[in-house]
Design goal:
Helix content: 25-40%
Protein name: Heparinase II/III family protein
Pfam family, one: Hepar_II_III_C
Keywords: Lyase, Periplasm, Signal
Shape: elongated
Number of helices: 17
Strand content: 15-25%
Largest sheet: 9 strands, antiparallel
InterPro entries: Chondroitin_lyas, Hepar_II_III_C
Radius of gyration: 25 Å
Organism: Mesorhizobium shangrilense
């Protein structure tokens, strides 16, 4: 009861904070504040910062013909401006107003693409530039737009006449002043950090007094120190956040250098920590482990970012501040979640996947978590975030953490994580010829009186992954048959893996031109059930899962093993 009361208190505290933020935002967008956003119009853009995000000239052509493939959805405008039509998809609208798609016009490198970019920016200024409201002026979207307009100003202003040139710079100045006013009111998380990044870009790219750059640099440093953990992870515990933030920080570092300004130590330190962290979460095929909001990986994006990593060593094996462990040898990679839930303010994408793991061998994934369908239907998100969608154990088919799914609060907060493990001790047990860890969580202690302990050990040059899952009462009390001790340990199989029984009735996981692995369990006969893999590039895919089902009063500890029986050629870990 005390836990439920505490979760409820945290939730309503978050509601109150968000109501206050929205009220302040409405005030700052109203007539009483709007005069503060007017002022001197910059004369020119001093420098266009680089953009590391991948660009495709074909998308520029699609946009020219009125087809907008944004946020996983294609919208045809029928000759109208995209800012004139009502598209119900919130993600598509945010991407449209964020203007990151300008990079495709830059990649096209034609006068036609530049003219189309200029026309679309002109449409936005005419329809949204004078009215601060709606999705277009959400602070997070505004920050993306400010960065994109600065990065691609050379394309937008190519061949521009003076009236448009002035209108562009005037609108940009208004957005920067608005963002400067709103940044301190934004909720914790990567959008607030991106706002500070955008303001630093603006202070470097536009004529501004030295005090403006000092203030932007100081605020950026404070936000980086708060959000980037000592091991390089982000406070949200989402691997995708590391990738997204690096895609902004690396060009910002270059812009400081191009302007002969000294970047803050916090910026340099954050990049130095985050690049190894990105490699920590990376499997050998280039994809990121599917934890806490991570969906499908676009591999080239990661490769582009990692070209800036000069360390060139093996990834770290231990990320204690982010709450993850990595085992790696013989071309085999195991990544596991061994951390506490993130703070409630940044938990809107967090998963109930404590002690879940993924296993890849060479460039093939074998054991995975379901991940999320990044651009898919919102109704799938609760399923993807549940413990049952992860390669870990559930008790009584219940998630180890709770989420707020209130329809009344969804528009205000989304669906934050409001309960979960409070203690997740973890200990490395590396030895000569083996790597491993033992971790335990208490996410089920309050409701069912159980602790879940998992030990994973990778040995024999990566040929054997040994696992142990143990369930015990706090204090070591005996487990009694109460009807509330039903355990299910799941191992989700990647959709590309074939699963069959050999002549010894063992489960064999194999794929074409890849390794073969045999799954065995000492205490429980494994079963095979249907599953869904949400993180496919083309959307959800049918898959299967290996299930160990038993009662803790009968069996309190299970031992299982994945053994590599044939080894395909593959590069070593890097």
């Amino acid at each position: 009861m005390a836990l439920v009361a505490g979760n409820t208190t945290r939730l309503w505290t978050l509601v109150a904070k968000e109501f206050w933020r929205k009220t302040r935002r409405r005030l700052r967008a109203g007539p009483a504040y709007r005069w503060r956003y007017s002022g001197r119009t910059p004369e020119r853009v001093l420098i266009a910062p680089p953009d590391l995000r991948l660009a495709d000239p074909q998308i520029a052509l699609e946009i020219y013909y009125g087809r907008y493939p944004l946020s996983g959805h294609l919208v045809e405008t029928g000759g109208k401006s995209p800012f004139q039509i009502n598209v119900p998809n919130h993600g598509w609208q945010k991407t449209l107003h964020g203007f990151r798609w300008l990079r495709h016009m830059r990649a096209a490198g034609t006068e036609l693409a530049a003219a189309n970019a200029r026309a679309l920016v002109s449409d936005w200024i005419a329809m949204h530039g004078g009215h601060i409201s709606g999705i277009a002026w959400e602070p997070g979207t505004t920050a993306k737009r400010v960065i994109a307009w600065l990065q691609h100003s050379s394309v937008v202003l190519q061949g521009a006449e003076y009236p448009f040139y002035r209108a562009f710079l005037k609108s940009l100045a208004v957005q920067i002043r608005y963002l400067r006013s709103m940044a301190r009111e934004m909720p914790d998380g990567k959008d607030r950090l991106r706002a500070r990044i955008a303001l630093a870009f603006a202070a470097l790219s536009l004529p501004a007094p030295a005090s403006a750059l000092r203030g932007a640099t100081r605020n950026l440093a404070e936000e980086l120190d708060h959000q980037i953990l000592p091991d390089g992870g982000h406070i949200s515990r989402n691997p995708m956040a590391v990738l997204e933030i690096l895609a902004d920080l690396l060009p910002l570092r270059q812009t400081y250098a191009n302007q002969a300004e000294t970047p803050p130590a916090a910026l340099m330190g954050a990049i130095d920590r985050m690049l190894p962290a990105l490699r920590f979460f990376r499997h050998q095929d280039g994809s990121l482990a599917r934890f806490n909001g991570m969906g499908a990986t676009i591999h080239d994006r990661i490769a582009t970012i990692l070209r800036h990593d000069d360390t060139a060593g093996a990834p770290l094996l231990h990320a204690p501040h982010s709450g993850y462990e990595r085992l790696s040898m013989g071309g085999v990679t195991v990544i596991a979640d061994t951390g506490l839930p993130p703070p409630i303010d940044v938990s809107n994408a967090a998963h109930a996947g404590c002690l879940a793991f993924e296993l890849s061998s060479g460039r093939q994934h074998y054991i995975v978590n379901a991940g999320i369908d990044t651009y898919g239907a919102a109704e799938f998100r609760p399923l993807a975030r549940a413990t049952a969608a992860h390669s870990t154990a559930t008790i009584n088919d219940t998630s180890s953490a709770r989420f707020s799914h209130s329809l009344r609060l969804n528009d205000l907060l989304g669906s934050p994580l409001i309960g979960g493990p409070r203690h997740v001790p973890c200990k490395r047990i590396d030895q000569k010829g083996s790597q491993g860890f033992v971790a335990r969580h208490d996410g089920y202690a309050q409701r069912f009186g159980f602790l879940h302990e998992r030990e994973l050990k990778l040995s024999t040059n990566g040929n054997v992954l040994t696992g142990r899952d143990r369930f015990q009462r706090p204090g070591g009390a005996p487990i009694r048959n109460t009807g509330r001790d039903f355990i299910t340990v799941r191992f989700h199989i990647h959709p590309d893996i074939n699963l069959f029984q050999d002549e010894h009735d063992r489960l064999v996981l194999t794929a074409e031109a890849a390794d073969s692995w045999v799954f065995t369990c000492t205490e429980v006969a494994p079963e095979v059930e249907e599953s869904i893999y949400f993180a496919g590039l083309g959307g959800p895919r049918r898959s299967r899962q290996i299930v160990l089902a038993f009662k803790a009063s009968d069996i309190s500890e299970v031992h299982w093993q994945l053994t590599r029986t044939s080894i395909a050629g593959h590069p070593e870990n890097n």
